[in-house]
Every structure is written in C-alpha cells, then in structure tokens.
Design brief:
The protein has 155 residues and is mainly β. 10% of the residues lie in helices and 32% in strands.
C-alpha cells in the first residue's frame, strides 16, 4: 500500500527541496519536501539582505521561554571563559533581529504536535541577521552564551 501523503505525480515534486537525502526509487512524502530551503512553521522568511541562523538558547536565555516568531530582539553574546579569547567583553551582536522560528531541543518546531506530546523545551531560536554579521555571529556560537532581549518598542 502507498502511504498517506505520498506524491503520486513527479510534477508535484519538481522544484521542491528535499528535507533529507533521498535514495533512488524511494517514495517521496509531501512532508519530506519543501517549497523553500528552510520552511519555518511561522511562515516567515528572512528579509532581503539577511540570513537565517539558529542561536542555541534555552528558556532562560529566550525571554523566559516566551520568545515567539515575529518578535524583534537584540542578541547579546556573553563570552564563555576558556572558549572565548581572553578579554572579550559582552556585546550586542545583532540589534532588532527578526525571530523567524523557535525550535525544540530535538530541532522540531516548538508548538508542533510532536513537541507538545513530548513537552520539549526551547533548544534554539532562528533569527534573521544581516549578511555582513553572519561570520561574527557564527563564531560567537562556539565561544559564547546568548541572551535574547526584546528590542525597544516590541511588546
């Protein structure tokens, strides 16, 4: 039997992006391909001139677990002793960054049926950052802890 959600016409898969590697002859389910390279549960996309990056953050760092897609946040990097260069200070690495998605510790969209059933916690927050800042922010992921601060004017 063909599983529910299987694409029964090649035309429905053309131009879509696989979410994982596909093997020759493998059945393709609609849920395993996306319209865009990153399909966020929020439906938001990175604005022009920005890139999406997942920032590791638990509930405490993510506004007590209340951060949600669409919010604008300032991203504060706090150097971790022994990982960050000596003398690096706390810094704001992105201001007014758009929150695109909130992910669980397993990487699933937080609030999905999968995470609701397992009571998963926030594991990362996907934000849009300017292209010019992507390397600096990526380097800080390896050397810092992040605090998300609700940007001025946000409610």
């Amino acid at each position: 039997a063909v599983p529910e959600g299987a694409l029964d016409d090649v035309a429905r898969a053309v131009g879509r992006i696989p979410r994982a590697p596909l093997g020759r002859g493998q059945l393709v389910l609609a849920s395993t391909v996306a319209e865009r390279p990153a399909a966020f549960a929020s439906g938001l996309v990175p604005p022009s001139g920005t890139r999406a990056i997942a920032i590791p953050a638990g509930p405490v760092q993510a506004l007590g677990g209340t951060v949600s897609p669409g919010a604008r946040i300032d991203l504060v990097a706090v150097p971790v002793a022994g990982r960050a260069p000596a003398g690096r200070a706390v810094e704001v690495v992105a201001s007014g960054a758009l929150v695109l998605d909130v992910r669980s510790e397993s990487g699933a969209a937080l609030g999905s049926a999968r995470t609701a059933a397992s009571r998963e916690r926030i594991g990362s927050v996907v934000v849009a950052i300017p292209v010019a800042d992507e390397l600096r922010v990526a380097e800080r992921i390896a050397t810092s802890t992040f605090i998300l601060v609700l940007a001025a004017g946000e409610r």
